[in-house]
């Protein structure tokens, strides 16, 4: 039994993107969807959620209140929604809004009460020493004048080792010069984009290893002396969690290929690039022939094995600049930048067909041949619209599939407006 992700998912926005996200999450046993929100009760994602018994919300406040322990995906396109979500579930749990630290409240309290804390050093030390997050204080030259035990432990130092050292040693070299410039500009102008703004950046441990940290920077004025206080949290767990969710959201779990979501994103990028630079590209839609027979006779495990092998065979035919994706089931798509000449396109598709039909699949002494019915559409020859390109390539694939069923030996591809035999040289 697979472990579920640490937090369930709340989707804000049930339009086309929200519906696709929900569809992919439903397929993943590791992800629990806590609910979905949209003002439009008939939005595609809302209908899909109701079909699967997933809670739906027409009020964003109600959704966030009901799913406070969730990781929030804001797909509405409105920053204020991310800000509202951050207020309710915490910025670190929101994709779409700025991340904040709960420990930041401690920094503000320290700023407001620095005069009292300066009179009570023991109390100050108690707060710093028992804080879970690393707290580092530097002067205007970037020298560390204090670092709590958590900071030493976080960066792999013994207690006291950091004091007197330059803070630059805790960050990669490319960030060190930038850090010095930020301090200089703040001292000259009194303005800094980093003060009070949580951000993620790499940290460097004593052994030289790099790891992600969340940093909040505050300024403290004691009499005529300026100090900078950094609150540091190890972001490894959060970053790994987000990377895992990102991978589950954008990649097919079986084949490792980009999934439907990433395909549409890549297609939009190809369209923008093509329109701006007058660059042509082709779109292929592939549906496997013979796969259903394997799946029905040999079982789903065998079918999964076929899909995994097919993905590898097809990857061996395309270039690194191409995008090969699995749309679901036994359907694959490919975006082929700069490859729109008919002869080049036919040559590649014949290569794909040969790779598939030349790789027999055997199960229990029974041999199966897997082929593919392939339709192609070209930008801008056939369309300059993403949905229309997909539709034309899909329609062409079905034309090819009908032709392949009628033919006894020949195999065809369809280039929107004509059939091309694949067996010819």
Distance between the termini: 50 Å
Strand content: 15-25%
Poorly predicted runs of 5 or more residues: 97-114
Mean pLDDT: 84
Number of strands: 18
Helix content: 40-55%
The main sheet orders its strands as: 12-13-11-16-17-18
If you compute it from the alpha carbons, what radius of gyration comes out, rounded to the nearest whole angstrom? 28 Å
- Helical stretch tally: 15
Question: In terms of structural class, how would the helical and strand content be classed?
Answer: alpha/beta
Q: What oligomerization state is this entry in?
A: single chain
Q: Mind summarizing the main beta sheet?
A: 6 strands, mixed
**Shape, please?**
elongated
Report on the structure:
With 425 residues, this protein is α/β, with parallel strands linked by helices. The chain has 15 helices and 18 strands. The protein has a 6-stranded mixed sheet, sandwiched between helices. Helix 1 runs parallel beside helix 2, helix 3 runs parallel beside helix 4 and helix 12 packs antiparallel against helix 13. The longest helix is centred in the last third of the chain and has 21 residues. It is elongated and about 90 Å long. The two termini are 50 Å apart. About 4% of the residues have low confidence.
